[in-house]
Input
Amino acid sequence: MRVRTALGRITAAALVLAPLLAASPAHAGPVPLPAITDEQGRALILHGLNTAGSAKGPSGLPWVSRDDIVREARELGTNSVRYLIQWKNVEPEPGQYDDAYLDDVAERVAWYREQGMHVILDMHQDIYGPAACEGSGNGAPGWATFTDGLPCTPQDPWVLTYVQPAVLRAYDNFWNNTGEHPELMQHYTAMWKHVAKRFADDPAVLGYDLMNEPFGGTRQFGFFEGPILTPFYQGIVNAIREVDRDNWVFVEPQALGPNEGAETSLGVVRDPRPGGPRIVFAPHFYPGGVDLGGSYDGVTKMLVQAQFAFWKRNMPAAARRLNTPMWLGEVGGMGPGAPGAADFTGDWLSMADELGIGWAYWSNDRGSSGVIDGDGKPTLFAKVLARPYPRAVAGTLTKTSYGDGALTVTWRNKPGVAGPTEIWFPATPKVTSTDPDGTWRTHWDATRHVLSVWADPDTPSHTVTVKS
Output
């Protein structure tokens, strides 16, 4: 089951209104956002899947095999994965880490490494953890769950469970809103340091997503993101940098509101590493109206498109304020039979292209809203997501556009960048370039469906069009 904003999905009407509550307009400028970069200095555009909802279970491991990852890389062109792990599996008892579990994670990370894919380890949670409300939740271990004896009854839709008394109290105790459990955030920070130390030298691991969809309990918005969530992230970054100086750290805003496009009050998280910061702003996108069985047509489509506009304005503006790259860590939300499912998917893909950002689709689990059905056959979403894109850009990406089977990519040279621009294309392509004849060359890898483009380093800007 896909992850969704907690309270923001109680009703579609409330969700549509959420962005309107922003206190003041924020305007994204024309300058490209900072980029996530690889070891050669190339800008990375991360296309991938969340793997997986099945990892929310007791074992904390997803259903995938090595062959599934090979298929994903070849058929969808993914170059990354948001790989779910859980606190309860990493630290089953206070201060005691299950390194056998991390070995199992490392084995699966190696499968992605074999395909040249980048791994973002995501510390996942929903409804705090399984001990907060019996039959619901994932993430926190039982020993770190304090509900103070308050009741909880799982709700339908499941997101209403967030406002059950026991769940609210579990969050309030974790964030020390009660003043009773400052040790919980300390344990969480130490747990992340242990994970980072384990994976610091793994070449497949690009970085760490510190907490899935943070929820502040009885404190929300400006009462949570600024005074509580920001220093919490800062403490984890400081701890990680003691054992890992290079990997990227992904920070999410709270889910309620920003998932639908409302502004975030998350503060700047500073990176103490030498050589420049490696912090990424990683919001999700789940507009009300298409989630929880909704559609993307008629009046609903108009309302959802308004949320597109808010998200496209407010999230890049936040990334610029924080001076970070941006990555869409989760997006999805429709079944293939829902009216407008293909159009919605195409529209958010075009939004990501326009912003020059990568994404991770929810999810690769078998089922109607995943990329394969129960029989292992590609779904509608697999076909739409198998979209040509620049995987790595040897400079500053300035424009990506795709339509009528043609992908056009424009970039500027950037000092110190090595290697070619790499473009994933599902079929053998025809290539044209605006660079003068003889100053660029290409190579087509038919196995990986990757076109490598070496452009003239003396030409400041390049445009390449790739089509079938």
Q: What stands out?
A: Residues 1-29 have pLDDT under 50 and may be disordered. The chain has ten helices and 18 strands.
